[in-house]
C-alpha cells in the first residue's frame, strides 16, 4: 500500500483528490493538510511514501515544503501539482529535487500512475513541460544581482538596499546597471518585468 500525504488549500479540490486516490486499491491517503507549514510535521507523523503538494499554498509554498521534506524526511518522495506549467516553475521544481511535476488538469488515472511511479523513485514530468523547461533560457544574472533586483522589485530604493546588504549605494547601482545590461532591458523597471516574467525572481 502506497501511503500519501496530500497538501492542497482548496477544500473541494483536496476532497476530490483524496476521494480519487482512495479509490485506488494500492493507494491510501494517510494525511491531508491545507497549508505549506503543516507539511513537514504531518509527514514526520504519518510517514507517507509520497507527498502530493500543490505548488501554491498559504504559508510555505509547495517547492519550499518539498525541499524541506527532501532534507528531513528523505524517504518521502514528492509530486508537485500546479495549474501553471511555466518553464521557470518547472525549472524551480527540478532544482528543488522534486520527483514529479504534474498539471492539475491531467486525467485522474495519470495522477494515480504518477504517484505509483514517484513511490518507487522514478521521475515523472509531463513531456511538454519538460521540453519547455529544457528550452527555457538560463538566468544570466548572478545570485547577488537577482537579490538586489528582487529588493528593487519590492519597492526598496538604492539607499535601503545598500543598508540591508551592507554595500555602498554605488555598488548597488552598479549591480542594478549590470542587470539592466544583461537582460537587454530599457531600464530598471523593464529589467524587473523581464526577470519576473521569466520567473527568475
From TrEMBL:
Residues 3-119 form the Response regulatory domain. Pfam families: GerE, Response_reg. GO terms for biological process: phosphorelay signal transduction system; regulation of DNA-templated transcription. GO terms for molecular function: DNA binding. InterPro entries: CheY-like_superfamily, Sig_transdc_resp-reg_C-effctor, Sig_transdc_resp-reg_receiver, Tscrpt_reg_LuxR_C, WalR-like. It comes from the Bacteria. The modification 4-aspartylphosphate is found at residue 54. The keyword Phosphoprotein applies. Keywords: DNA-binding, Phosphoprotein. The keyword DNA-binding applies. Residues 134-199 form the HTH luxR-type domain. This is DNA-binding response regulator. It comes from Amycolatopsis vastitatis.
